[in-house]
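User: I'm new to structure prediction. If I give you an amino acid sequence, what do you actually give back? Let's try with this one:
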Amino acid sequence: MALRIAFIVLYPILFCCALFAPVIASWQLAIAVAILFIFLWKSFKDVLISTAILFVLIFPLTLWTMQFYNPIAAMNIKPWMYLLDLVYVFLFMTPQLFSVEVYQSFRKRRVI
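Assistant: Good question. You get back a string of structure tokens that encode the predicted 3D arrangement of the chain. For your 112 residues, that looks like this:
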């Protein structure tokens, strides 16, 4: 149970680091993190909890931190956050929800 909670909390942190950390920021790394966590989550609920943490805590905290290191980038991203959240739901969360359900159904049948 503790490992499951660690995966739920770790996903938002790693996802935002992959997108906003100055040295390693890339979409490819964010996609790799998303694919990795598809195999680590145990249920549909885990994906929803991780996404809620991502939207409520991590995105605003990342923007707040960016204001200290790169205030111009933070000012440019703020107006687009609602669009970025919407894009996240369609490009990341929906496929993750589907993939987690498919993967878990295969695991229950002992295919994987």
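You can read the tokens as a compact description of the fold. Here is one thing that stands out. The chain has a mean pLDDT of 86.
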